[in-house]
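[job 4471] stage=fold_predict status=RUNNING
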Amino acid sequence: MKRLLRSFKILRVVARYRLDTFFEGLPLPFYLRLLLWLLPWRYLVPATQPRGERLRLALEALGPVFIKFGQMLSTRRDLLPDDVAEELKKLQDQVPPFAGSDAQSIIEQALAQPVSELFSAFDVQPLASASVAQVHKATLFDGREVVVKVIRPGIDRIIRKDVALLYSIAALVQAIWADGRRLRPVEVVSEYEQTIFDELDLRKEAANGSQLHRNFAGSDILYVPEIYWDYTRPNVLVMERIHGIPVADVAQLEAQNTDMKKLAERGVEIFFTQVFRDSFFHADMHPGNIFVSRENPQSPQYIAVDFGIVGSLTPEDQSYLARNLLAFFTRDYRQVAQLHVDSGWVPADTNVDAFETAIRSVCEPIFEKPLKEISFGQVLLGLFQTARRFNMEVQPQLVLLQKTLLNIEGLGRQLYPDLDLWQTAKPFLEGWMKERMGPKAVYRSIKQQAPDWLEKMPHMPQMVFDALNQVRRLDDNRARDMRAYAAAKAELERQRRPMRYVGGLLVLFALASGNEEIMSWLDQLSVSSWLAAGIGLYLIIRR
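[job 4471] inference complete, writing structure tokens
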């Protein structure tokens, strides 16, 4: 019954915001076009607002799960028209908080102690509230200030129901829309399902935070709060409370004389350090999750929170990505195309010449602008969209990276409009490539592998002996198989020979039956002559 009511609510929102207009002009079957024409609200509710705005308002009306889905979808610029993607970026995840007493009960049940015994102070009023969880201030008995993140009660049931509806909608879109198979909406929902259910287990977020904290221990460019594992459970997370200025509050940053140029450049440095040095990057770096320390404004330090979504790249992906970016900014489009093929991002049988031409047609107009006006994120987006036309499969790790880069770039330009992102990134990429490919990298690789080599050295003679034995056995097996094949061929020939004799006799008999003299002669043969002929035929066939 509840699911039916939810379906009616979705239908009402579809009608109110005229989402049916998204299907107009698509190559739909006749019966679906007829259905669209017969929708009653088509003639009663005018679609006066732009389509992107109507979609955003509809998602907001449907609640937190759909809002988060829209936020995730806004990062998939490879799937959406620009006007829709830009509008979905405006989605605000402002959800009314649930009762502080409920949060306290959840904490006490998860940690098996009263809040009064866990904290010297606990604020029942939430500090912030989002779709999946809300945060409360608290103080440990040793005086350390912390924040307590609590998962919303019953949110998992709501998410499961809404995700099931999203799957139904995605399957319908994929079935009736010609581009549905290419855009793969079911896979998009599956990706969202994995992301949102990961956020429901706060231990995963805590583990991500601990890893980032270790990666930037002692860093003067990024501070990551400490996680208190003794107080962390699947639905409760306790971590150090930070005091900083929201990075989007430019007025307050300027009021304390923050070096905005250095702040913007350090944001770029943090991104590339996470991607290429650590291969572990915070993939949800929107302004709501980033703060700036109030200490030392002339050497500003970022503070990151909310580690529910992280990304990583394999060493191969790191190398291909760095070489792609360097090749792009030297306008070596042939290298860009070949790297996409070598990396496996596009099929091996891709026409590299045609791919190079397509990349050139997209990228050359970009270079008409000054370097500082070129959007690094849009470069990646253009490359991926071009590659999609050549059957590039969706690379989830690259989608996350592209989303993070767009966030960082937008943030950097907001802080310092003249930020030349390429000038900041190029030395880092060149240094990383040199370190990875140079003599030091070779020495480091040998040094890392030397213990394994030394451990295996005593076993080398036996391994060589075993390998030679395997080669010999392969040769023996091949010779045995050849003999078996020859014997089978001879046997087949032997079985076919009698049939050839019989066939020949039948042909002779057919020819003889047409000659009256031969038939007259055969009629005069005695029984003993026919018997002798039969015995002779048997002996020939047997031989």
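[job 4471] summary: Residues 347 and 387 are 10 Å apart (CA to CA).
[job 4471] exit 0
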